[in-house]
């Protein structure tokens, strides 16, 4: 913020592992100097006090901590821990009003704590409920900051936070035509195949009957350290208005519980992700939220791989599957466009041991002829340069050839002049959602009075 130092962050692959270079801008002929010369851990700059730089870091602290590195004594033995690692996952830290604002995930729900610059805890920010908060930006001299709070049934709402008094006041609320009081959000925990405790969010209308008849859409991702936090989106709300239960499982491979949780769903451990998702489906059925004839699953990109893998491993568990822009050929994904960067999470078929693990679950290679698979509507785009549409084309052609039920549709929807999803015009998004939900409406036997 003082403009003295240029900090250069160098990344490699998709993991949060960085090299750091620093240049002193007060020295006209100075060259960037390596502060961190390896890709062993994450170092995300928070701010500085003169030559002392603050970073969030996961070296020896998989749920992250805040450290201080003095450029005058940059050796690791001189690093100082300001906010130590704790049981909660540290998402990020801001430096506002000469205070650190630390954002944590506590069982996938946001918690925010305020610390002094020497790491003394001051207070916790009171948030409106179960949901996700972000923001808390500003400058060292500011006495206020702003943050956004949202949840599955709470549209994004901006609050002003007084750094001195610790009081939040409403600044602006998004206007959405629905009654939040008609819906409820709860978090449950279930046990995966290997005994791991996994969280899941459920959102639905209040007062539903737990009789196994509720149309349910289970969503998952489980990769690249991405945390599936409770946030507001119109499409799940529409599903709930149609009478459905919306479920989000927080699978291993994500970042909900830090780097160890992430690594437990990568490479040779990738099957853990699929086991977690299958266990979520079984929990919903066992607890009478739904039944196999009323259960659909959805995921995109890495989540498309998730849907493709579990629908082949447990086809009897689902009535409908919506894999979007999925990575379906796990033996050759690294040979196309950005796929070479994903080996951090998936491994590579060039490695003999990883080849066996990839082949065991690769959707394209595990389709079995003569099997009755769930109704499937895969989506892709003709100019997706991240996950090339060939993944979906090959998978769906093989699935259609092997599928043993003429009365169960297995279809692909190909969007034209579109990519992986970002930047898609609103009109095309509406058309896609309309097709997906019409497909679910038919496949799950929903009625208009649902």
Number of contiguous helices: 8
**Can you summarize the main beta sheet?**
8 strands, mixed
CATH topology of the largest domain: Rossmann fold
User: Based on the structure given, which CATH architecture of the largest domain is correct?
Assistant: 3-Layer(aba) Sandwich
Amount of beta strand: 25-35%
Shape: globular
Overview of the structural elements:
This protein is of the alpha+beta class and 450 residues long. It folds into 3 domains: 1-82, no CATH class; 86-175; 180-443, Rossmann fold (3-Layer(aba) Sandwich). Helices cover 19% and strands 32% of the residues. It has helices spanning 234-241, 259-263, 271-286, 302-313, 343-346, 352-361, 390-402, 426-443, and strands spanning 5-11, 18-24, 33-36, 43-49, 52-57, 65-70, 80-83, 89-96, 99-106, 109-115, 121-124, 132-135, 144-151, 154-162, 168-173, 183-191, 197-205, 216-219, 245-249, 295-300, 320-324, 375-381, 410-415. The protein has an 8-stranded mixed sheet with strand order 16-17-19-18-20-21-22-23, sandwiched between helices. It has a 4-stranded antiparallel sheet with strand order 4-5-6-7, with no helix packed on it. The protein has a 4-stranded antiparallel sheet with strand order 8-9-10-11, with no helix packed on it. β20, α4 (302-313) and β21 form a beta-alpha-beta unit. The termini are far apart.
